[in-house]
DNA sequence: TTCTGTGAATTTATTCACAGCA
DNA sequence: TGCTGTGAATAAATTCACAGAA
């Protein structure tokens, strides 16, 4: 029986939850490497990321056979493989739209740089901010999005503007050729399905918690 | 046949993904109410939040029968019910630990206030920041966490310190009686299971996107 | 008729449990 | 022996499809 064409180690497609866990594994590798571990078992990795060991093994096995039976996984190899899988071997070109409090924080936030991401251009509607340079990043006027994003070949955009303006900004970004968006505005964006969107709603994280706190208050009574 | 004891409209417990969607519905209600809609159907709500209509109905039905067959849901009623379910009818006492770039942004971030959350106290290790007041919120020294959190009866904490310090901060918070934590540090926190933790890793959102971008680059070739 | 509420069917994800290799 | 890789079993979430109320 002929095998189906397969470009990746596993031809079936990877479950979303698995992809969402990869960055967590990556953090764990850094931690283990820092503590001079050269090898980790699925059990250790599971412990460090609060996940079932079988789940860890299955997640990793989607991408190839990285482990050694009886031994475990080589931390360095796994770290390198995982970076490759997540596409972190190249420097992605990122833009930030909205330099309010949140935008400013994201611009200065060390976590992006540490993970290897660099913001190439920032945008804001406020004329008093335009022209400034912060953390080596020039702030442009929002109407310049189409031109600048296209010129700089920006691939990923972070939206940190009020919800009322988010869709318009997204339209411009898409028009300028952006391929993915992280949206911090609390609204759903409509974009062509070739463009990827991930929404991050900070307030909803708190609401998720208050749901459980409220529930435990109720059942306690 | 005797009915099983049931405190909530539905006695089975609510799926996690359902809870995660509730805040999204809440945003939609606000939007529909703003556009003078008094009634919405599951289809409209689904369209606005990018979810299957049957899913919307099932989600809402976990909490009671809020709709009218043939008509739809009353926006105001649903909004109010949803706020009650999420525990948003009371003002939760929140603390912020870490007033670096991200912490400062969260302190000033309008989204929390808009959702009805208010930060009562902030903490930082930097002595030059201690004593300042920002957005009406006093910044305390980090070692004061135990005392201030206890005195102010803080229930929820937001951690925005470097990963290396996050666990220590979490220990202090737990010790001071905090019941839930939103953790922005890219690490897993160990806390008693009575304490709720939600991790938000901003870099991992980007990594999630680069995974798909990288993959589409590969398959395009 | 329209649209909700919900069992049943389906799809998807997690966990188990063990064969196979170092 | 110890630990991976993975089919099989289980659990969970989503979607279908339709009965029932306005």
Write the layout of secondary structure elements.
The structure is a homodimer of 221-residue chains.
Chain A: H1 16-34, E1 39-40, H2 42-49, H3 53-61, E2 67-68, E3 72-74, H4 75-85, E4 93-97, H5 101-108, H6 110-114, E5 118-124, E6 133-134, E7 137-141, H7 145-151, E8 156-159, H8 163-175, E9 180-183, E10 196-199, H9 202-220
Parallel strand pairs in A: 4-5, 4-8, 5-7, 8-9, 9-10
Antiparallel strand pairs in A: 1-3, 2-3, 6-7
The structure holds a DNA duplex (22 and 22 nucleotides).
Please explain how this structure is put together.
Two copies of one chain form a homodimer. With 221 residues, chain A is an alpha/beta fold. Chain A folds into two domains: 16-85, Winged helix-like DNA-binding domain superfamily/Winged helix DNA-binding domain (Arc Repressor Mutant, subunit A, Orthogonal Bundle); 93-204, NAD(P)-binding Rossmann-like Domain (Rossmann fold, 3-Layer(aba) Sandwich), CATH 3.40.50. Chain A is 45% helix and 17% strand. Chain A is built from nine helices and ten strands. Chain A has helices at 16-34, 42-49, 53-61, 75-85, 101-108, 110-114, 145-151, 163-175, 202-220, and strands at residues 39-40, 67-68, 72-74, 93-97, 118-124, 133-134, 137-141, 156-159, 180-183, 196-199. In chain A, the strands form two sheets. A seven-stranded mixed beta sheet of chain A has the order 6-7-5-4-8-9-10, with helices on both faces. In chain A, helix 1 (16-34) runs antiparallel to helix 4 (75-85) and helix 2 (42-49) packs across helix 3. Mean pLDDT of chain A is 92; it is low at 1-8. Chains A and B meet through helix 1, helix 5, helix 6 and helix 9 of A and helix 1, helix 5, helix 6 and helix 9 of B. The structure holds a DNA duplex (22 and 22 nucleotides).
């Amino acid at each position: 029986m002929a095998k189906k064409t397969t470009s990746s180690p596993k031809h079936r497609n990877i479950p979303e939850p698995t992809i969402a866990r990869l960055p967590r594994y990556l953090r764990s590798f850094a931690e283990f490497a820092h503590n001079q571990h050269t090898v980790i078992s699925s059990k250790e990795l599971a412990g460090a990321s609060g996940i079932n060991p079988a789940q860890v093994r299955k997640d990793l096995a989607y991408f190839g056979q990285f482990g050694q039976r009886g031994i475990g996984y080589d931390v360095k190899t796994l770290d390198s493989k995982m970076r490759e899988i997540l596409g972190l071997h190249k420097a992605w070109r990122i833009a930030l739209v909205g330099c309010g409090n949140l935008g400013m924080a994201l611009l200065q936030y060390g976590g992006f740089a540490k993970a290897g991401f660099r913001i190439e251009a920032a945008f804001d509607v406020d004329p008093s901010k335009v022209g400034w340079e912060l953390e080596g990043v020039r702030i442009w006027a929002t109407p310049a999005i189409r031109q600048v994003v296209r010129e700089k070949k920006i691939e990923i955009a972070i939206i940190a503007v009020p919800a009322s303006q988010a869709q318009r900004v997204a339209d411009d970004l898409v028009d300028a050729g952006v391929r993915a968006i992280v949206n911090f505005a609390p609204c759903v964006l409509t974009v062509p399905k070739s463009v990827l969107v991930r929404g991050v709603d900070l307030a909803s994280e708190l609401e998720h918690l208050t749901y459980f706190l409220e529930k435990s208050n109720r059942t306690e009574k």
